[in-house]
Design goal:
With about 300 residues, this protein is an alpha/beta fold. The chain has 10 helices and 9 strands. The chain has one domain: Rossmann fold (3-Layer(aba) Sandwich), CATH 3.40.50.150. Helix 4 links the parallel strand 1 and strand 2. Helix 9 packs across helix 10. The longest helix is centred in the last third of the chain and has 18 residues. It is globular. The protein starts with a helix and ends with a strand. The structure holds S-adenosylmethionine.
Length: about 300
């Protein structure tokens, strides 16, 4: 009820504060060549997020790791150093991301690291029961059928294996209010909201994450919400980060992407001047969820 009232007051679609973007068309979005390039240059924040969680998980050094939705492969490459006696396989739906990852992190420099495009939305093309760690960093906000994907990932875990998740909540009303104003200006249809499950759950909330992990047969070892005021050097850096990251989720074309996100960020700053500091730096609120889970025995 509270959410409904807030939505009406802010003029937002009902679920706008915790959307769940659809990700079924693998030819667009993250597969766009130019976006692959921009993501590589603007994914440092995502890398930092992943390492905050990785810092909480002990590694022996001989683990077999599956990095699901590895994107540009930066974090997979970092993890290959954590498991120098083990291995890392990065998989992604996006052909272009995988090609980029292979070029940036070649096997002569990273002998225990490999990348492969996943040909199945549910990873049925991967070996079962062998991974000591499966990570999915900033992926589950894009997954349309989280229960199905979580169950499938579980089948690839070894008996004592761990699943590590970082899920951005996207819970920033000002961001969605600005977005809802800017979409019509560019004649772009706002991304459709993926249908929630029958209990109206989404991986973008702590409650939803707990629900899906338990339904999929996991025992939760860590589940926490990390409130984050993500710092950006200046407005321009925040605009570029959105171009590199959010364009793919919303499928905004390269031709208009910069102008779209410039308008969006400027509008956010008008709506909430407190996100700007006197030294020119800006903060973007985007809380994340950390989860560590094992197979329920
Ligand atoms: C925001 S990027 C995250 C990339 C990387 N994990 C990081 O943290 O920088 C999301 C990635 O998830 C991939 N993805 C989304 N759904 C997927 C699925 N069902 N299977 C494999 N990859 C998926 C996209 O292609 C994209 O490269």
């Amino acid at each position: 009820m509270k959410k409904m009232l807030l939505s009406i007051v802010l003029g937002l679609p009902l679920l706008a504060q915790v959307p769940d973007w659809s990700f079924e068309d693998v030819k667009q979005g993250w597969n766009s060549d130019l976006l692959t390039k921009t993501y590589f240059h603007y994914s440092e924040m995502q890398r930092q997020w992943a390492f905050e969680l990785l810092g909480k998980v002990p590694f022996k050094g001989n683990e077999k790791v599956l990095d699901f939705g590895c994107g540009d492969g930066k974090i997979s490459a970092d993890m290959s150093h954590l498991v120098s006696k083990g291995s890392v396989l990065g998989v992604d739906l996006s052909f272009n991301m995988i090609e980029l990852a292979k070029r940036k992190f070649p096997s002569f420099a990273y002998p225990n690291l490999a990348f492969r495009q996943s040909t199945s939305l549910v990873s049925s093309d991967l070996e079962e029961g062998i991974y000591d760690v499966i990570s999915a960093f900033t992926v589950f906000h894009l997954v349309n059928k989280p229960l199905e994907v979580l169950k499938n990932l579980k089948s690839h875990l070894s008996v004592d294996g761990k699943l590590l998740l970082v899920v951005p909540t996207g819970n920033n009303p000002i961001f969605y209010q600005a977005a809802n104003e800017i979409f019509p200006k560019y004649g772009i249809t706002a991304p459709r909201f993926a249908s929630r499950d029958s209990k109206n759950q989404t991986m973008r909330t702590l409650e939803g994450c707990a629900f899906f992990l338990q339904e999929a047969g996991y025992k939760i070892e860590l589940l926490e919400l990390v409130e984050t005021k993500n710092p950006f050097y200046d407005i321009e850096e925040l605009i570029q980060w959105m171009v590199g990251t959010v364009s793919a989720n919303w499928n905004i074309s390269q031709e208009v992407s910069y102008f779209f996100f410039k308008d969006l960020v400027m509008r956010m700053c008008e709506l909430d001047p407190s996100m700007m500091s006197t030294d020119g730096s800006v903060f973007f609120n985007n809380a994340r969820i950390h989860a560590v889970a094992k197979i329920e025995k």
